[in-house]
Specification:
binds adenosine-5'-triphosphate; about 140 residues; binds magnesium ion; alpha+beta; five-stranded antiparallel beta sheet; 4 helices
């Protein structure tokens, strides 16, 4: 699997979450994703960026276009050096939140993906990978 192009964005504030949505939409449009897929990708990006800012204390987003055999994909990597997630399976469950949210963001983002992974260590931070392949 090859990364064809990439772009980084800092995520510190809710304004950055808006910028992340706009930038991710632009990549999805430029890569030729359908309108339905664009909406799925932007919705997931929005939730994950919000988590990076709210729960992770800020971090970064790396947007990558991928080439694997004959298919193209968009990968989003969210990284922070925040408190981490002690129990990732529990955090993915709908309705689980340590904050005031509904606890739907993480599980929702996973359902909108084709490939999803969370790496997290308490005290060291969190990295979330989201991939959507072009249909
Ligand atoms: N980057 C992160 N760093 C630390 N904890 C996180 C991170 N992302 C998610 N979490 C933990 O996982 C929980 C579930 O996340 P999820 O996005 O599903 O719900 P939420 O953000 O609490 O509410 P919402 O429905 O508004 O998104 C969070 O409450 C938080 O405890
Ligand atoms: Mg959330």
């Amino acid at each position: 699997m090859a990364v064809l192009a990439h772009e980084m964005l800092g995520l510190k504030s809710s304004e950055d979450v808006v910028l992340a949505r706009q930038l991710v939409r632009k990549w999805a449009v430029d890569m030729g994703f359908t309108l339905v897929d664009q909406t799925k990708i932007v919705t997931a990006a929005s939730e994950l960026a919000r988590n990076t800012v709210l729960h992770g204390g800020g971090g970064t987003l790396r947007i990558e276009s991928l080439n694997d055999q004959d298919r193209r994909g968009l990968r989003l990597v969210f990284e922070d050096q925040g408190p981490g997630i002690p129990d990732v399976e529990r955090a993915l469950r709908d309705g689980f939140s340590t904050g005031t949210g509904l606890g739907l963001g993480l599980g929702g983002a996973r359902r909108l993906s084709n490939d999803f992974a969370i790496q997290s260590r308490p005290g060291e931070g969190t990295r979330v990978h989201f991939i959507r392949w072009r249909s």
